Amino acid sequence: MTPAHTTSDLGPSNEPTAAPREIRPTVAQKIFYSLGQAAQSGGFDTAVGFVFFYYTVVLGLSGAMVGAALAVGLASDAIVDPFIGSWSDNIKSRLGRRLPLMIAAIPLTTISVGLLFSPPADLSQPLLFGWLVLLSVAGRSSISLFNVPYIALGAELATGYAERTSVVVYRSVAGILAGLVITALGFSVFFADGGLQRPEGYPGFGWTAAAVLFVCMTVCCLGLRRHAASLPQPVQVPQPMWRRLPNEVQEIFANRSFRLLFLSAVITYVAQGLNATLNSHSFVFVWQLKSEDIQFITYAFIVGLLIGVGGAPKFQQRLEKKDVVLIGLSLLIANWLVVQGSWLLGLYSPVGDAALMPMQFNSFVAGIGIGFVSVSYPSMMADAADEHEHLFGRRREGLYFAGLGFANKAATSIGVLLAGVALDIIRFPSDIGQKVGVVLPHDVQFRLVLVWGPVAAVIAVISMLIFSSYAITRTRHAEIAAALRAKRDLGDGAQVA
Description:
- This protein is mainly alpha-helical.
- The chain has helices at residues 7-10, 27-48, 51-58, 63-90, 99-116, 125-157, 161-190, 202-230, 241-253, 256-277, 279-285, 291-318, 321-344, 353-392, 397-425, 442-467, 474-490.
- The radius of gyration is 22 Å and the shape is globular.
C-alpha cells in the first residue's frame, strides 16, 4: 500500500473542500444526470459501432486502414482525456467547474457524428481514409469534452459507497435504453431487408443518431445546471495546465488502487473492442443472419445488460465490488469461448434462422457480464478517488475518470486496430460490397471466429489476473470515509490516519 502523505508534503490543495456529510441526489437529479450516459454509451458508441462494417464492407476500405483510422481517433481521444480532466477539475465559473465543457461539446459532437456517416460520394481510398480519420478524431474528442467532466460530476453527485452505485445504475440504464432506440431505428428503419450492406441508409441513420445525442446532452445540462453551479468552486492555481498536468498524472499513478483499476480496464477493453468490432462481420458472414434479424441479438444483449446493471447493486450488498467485476469477466469469457469453441471444433454450426437463438443467448450472457463490469468499475474508481484524497490530500475525480476514459478509449483503439489488421491477415475479401447472401470460404470463417471469440477470451483472462489483487473493500472504504469526515470536521487540512 502506498504510504500516506500529508497535505503539507505536497503543497496546498488546489481542490474544493467537500461537504462533511454524505451527499444523496434526488431521483430527478439522477434522471437528468443519466441522460448524459445516453449520449455516450447509448447514442455515440452504439452509432459508431456501425462504422467499421460500413467503411470495410459497404465502402470497400481495407480492414487495416479502417482499423488504423478508428484507432487514431480513439488514441487521440485518450490523449486529450487527462487534459480535459485537469481542465474540468480547475475551471471556475458561474456554472461550476464541469458544465461549461459539457455545453461546449454538444454542437461539436452532433455535427461530427452526422458527418462521419455522410462521406462525399466517389472519394478515392486515400481521401476516404482521411475523411474517416478526421471525423473519428473530431467525434471522439468532442464526446470526451462532454463525457470526462460528466463522469466526474457523477462522483460529486453522491458520496456514499452504495449511493454511488445507484447513480451508476441510473446512468447505465439510460445508456442502455438510448442504445435500444438507436439499434431499433438502425435495423428496423435504415438497414431493413439487407440494408446493412447498402450505402443509402447510412447518412440518414447518422444524422438521426446525432439528433438523439443532441437532445440527451442538452436535457442533461439543463437539468443539472443548478446542482453543478452549487458545488464548491476550485481555488485557482497559478500554474498553466501543461506544467501541472504531468505532476498530477504522476500523483494518481502513485495510488496502487488506481493502477490496478486502470490496467485491468485497459486489458478488458482491448478484448471487448476486438470482439465487438467483429460482431457484424461474424453475424453476417459466419452465422449467415439477415440484417434485420441482427437487431434481435442486440435486444437480447440489452436485456442481459439491464439484468446485469440492475443486479450489480444486489450482488454488491453481499459481495465486494471486486467480486462482482470478476463474475462479470467470467461471464464474458464464457460468452467468447463456449459457442465459438463448439463451432471451431465442428460440434455446433447452425446458420440462418437456426443460429439466431444461440447468438441471442450468447449475447444475453455477455450483456449480464458487461452490466456487472460497467456498474462496478466507475463506482470503484470513485472509491479510489476517495482513497487518493486520504493519501495525498487532494481531490482528483476529473483525472481519475479521465484515466478510466483513457483506458477505455486507448484500449478499444487497440482492439479496433487488431480487428482491422486481423481482417487483412485472414484474407477477408474487400470486394464483397453489396453482395447480400455471399458465403465465405470455410478457412476464412474459421479464422474470423477464432479472433472474434477465443483470442478475446485469452486477453480477458489476463485482466482478471491483474485485477484480483485490488484491495479497497467495503470495510476499507468505510475507514477512508470516516478519516476524511474527521479531517474535514477538524478543518485544519491535516491528514488523518
